[in-house]
Structure prediction request, 228 residues.
Amino acid sequence: GDSVTQMEGPVTLSEEAFLTINCTYTATGYPSLFWYVQYPGEGLQLLLKATKADDKGSNKGFEATYRKETTSFHLEKGSVQVSDSAVYFCALSVMDTGNQFYFGTGTSLTVIP
Amino acid sequence: DTAVSQTPKYLVTQMGNDKSIKCEQNLGHDTMYWYKQDSKKFLKIMFSYNNKELIINETVPNRFSPKSPDKAHLNLHINSLELGDSAVYFCASSQLWGGSGETQYFGPGTRLLVL
Prediction:
């Protein structure tokens, strides 16, 4: 079946550190891949997405590249800020299943000054 | 203007009660969803409606009944609440059903606590 495996947290980084959150997927069809972010007490917001292999999604300094050969969509940011503290979710959707979303378990990030 | 809104934001109730959560989207989307997020932040889809028709109905107790009076609204009614129903419930919407790469837009969540 379709699923997403995400790096376990929590992750604690100092401000300006480099961030990587690993995400790998299993899909029966040809998925679209997403990163969502959830700030404390809020709903999920789309951070970035990629819909085909080798696409790079980017937003607010975050990037992720759709790698079909390694079935991965790792999230990276070169220099994190305190305001990036949140829970990050990797997700996939496949047209064959009507765009149903499958989420990873979420990775909690805390950035300390 | 809030794109996807939910009411109430917090809901504290006793076991055995019946409660409803309302969701509205003003994005003109065709498809709406309900997700449950447990205490470990794990998100699981419960239901999906497309143009007011039920499309996805995951393994959810039949105490949970969604209702879509129109495309812009998807409400969730829960009968005979149990302790294990305590969670955050998120409503979401997307423009199309089955479109490649369709983004889902989430509401702020309803935090349900069953005592």
Notes: Chain B is about 0% helix and 55% strand. The mean pLDDT of chain B is 91. The longest strand of chain B covers residues 43-50. The radius of gyration of chain B is 13 Å.
